[in-house]
Design brief:
about 140 residues, about 50% helix, 6 helices
Amino acid sequence: KALADYQSAKTWGQYKEMREAFLRAFEGMEGVQVGGGVVGNSVSQSECAPHIISISIPGIKAEVLQSVLSDRVIVGIGSACNTKRSENRVLSATGLKKEQVEGTIRISFGSHNTMGEVQTAAQVIVQEIQKLRKIGA
């Protein structure tokens, strides 16, 4: 049991480092929220699973972003609890406005991912958000 606890704590720590590295790429991006809190707000991030990240990008439809990312980064849309409905009650219940709910993507990573992959994924997502914002999509 001690080895399992050590491995679990070690993995959890690696997830936290990956999460922090991932989120750094979004700092300074106007309107981007993570799990209901503004990027960089450690208070709202301290009680979440570090390997699952929910990002809301107002003004950009999650489906559009998911589509442009599909050959490079796999993202989910909406909340994991409610992926088959057009209206997401789970995200709405967190206080997000309709535009924020419609612009929410979900990213997960695991022990098989490297820090480099996490950083690259974040950079690709940021670049696509910037492109979509320029064209008003």
